Amino acid sequence: MFIIDKVRGWLLSIGAFIAVAGGIWLRGFTSGKNSEKDKQVKVDEKSKKVREEISDEVENLSNGQLDERLSKWVRKP
Questions:
Q1: Would you list the DSSP string of the chain?
Q2: pLDDT at 76 exceeding the cut of 80
Q3: 73 falls in which pLDDT band (50, 70, 90)?
């Protein structure tokens, strides 16, 4: 019986250690995940702002200005 009690104690200790280590890892994983989500939201907001600024700028150009600007993207013969 003494050996069984000792083994049971070791198993409980190992189980508690695994549970604590798993909890710490899970907390770090969740924190990192939330941090990356926040970064992506900021990047998305910045991209949306830039996209809207460019769209507004193009909308306000006259046809001649638009042709001149777009000619940079057309292949020259």
A1: -HHHHHHHHHHHHHHHHHHHHHHHHHHHHHHHHHHHHHHHHHHHHHHHHHHHHHHHHHHTS-HHHHHHHHGGGSPP-
A2: no
A3: confident
What's the confidence (pLDDT) of residue 56?
A: 92
Cα separations (Å) of 54 from 23, 51, 63, 65? Answer: 47, 5, 16, 14
Question: What amino acid is encoded at 41 in this protein?
Answer: V
Tokens 């798993």, located at residue: 22
pTM for the whole structure: 0.57
* Phi, psi (degrees; rounded to nearest 5) at 61: -80, 145
CA distance 5 to 1: 6
Could you give the CA distance from residue 51 to residue 60 in angstroms, rounded to a whole number? 14
